[in-house]
Amino acid sequence: MVKISMLIAIRPATLNEISAILRIEQQSRTASHWTIDQYTDLIANGIVLIAEQAEVICGFISAQAVAGEWEIENVVVAPEFLRQGIATRLVNEVIKRARRENASVIRLEVRESNQAARSLYEELHFRQEGRRFAYYSNPPEDALVYAMRL
Ligand SMILES: CC(C)(COP(=O)(O)OP(=O)(O)OC[C@H]1O[C@@H](n2cnc3c(N)ncnc32)[C@H](O)[C@@H]1OP(=O)(O)O)[C@@H](O)C(=O)NCCC(=O)NCCS
């Protein structure tokens, strides 16, 4: 069977797509929640990529780069498209772009209880490098810091 991830296109988001991005993000309890202004700034000055199939936005990833150090801020896939390899495609595209720009590292933080995201990053060979105690609120929880050295 062909996985849907083979059929999707990954491309930079446009400002017109912020409402679709917010809809996907707001359906997810474990995603990071950002404002319209923050997404506007990220599209202009950072990296926001969307996964799209037949004009339907299935998921997105956002990241920022500061002095060769990249940080993945969010990766979210719509519930009806989960476990189809879409997040893997999105993270791999960020890795490819970071390598192309000679980045030294990609980092991210994830809630300790977010097993789906942790498994995704571990499958992609991110390594756990640290812990930020009580980093999250509502509910309070530690963040695990994962990194990939490039
Ligand atoms: C984490 C998330 C982005 C994964 O998206 P996805 O498109 O379903 O992931 P993929 O299909 O690429 O999965 C790749 C691998 O990750 C792991 N994985 C993904 N979801 C998993 C789950 N629910 N439980 C355990 N492992 C999981 C598996 O190893 C999977 O490979 P497999 O399907 O061959 O077993 C998705 O669950 C999501 O949107 N979660 C809510 C938002 C969120 O918490 N984002 C992370 C913020 S840091």
Description:
The protein is α+β, with helices and mostly antiparallel strands. It has one domain: Aminopeptidase. Helix content is 29%, strand content 38%. The protein is built from 4 helices and 7 strands; from the N terminus they run βααβββαβαββ. It has helices at 18-26, 36-45, 86-100, 115-123, and strands at residues 9-12, 47-53, 56-66, 69-77, 105-111, 127-136, 141-149. The protein has a 7-stranded mixed beta sheet with strand order 1-2-3-4-5-7-6, with helices on both faces. Strand 6 and strand 7 (141-149) form a beta hairpin. The model has no long low-confidence stretch (mean pLDDT 95). It binds coenzyme A. Residues 28, 30-31, 74-77, 82-88, 110, 114-117, 119-120, 123 line the site of coenzyme A.
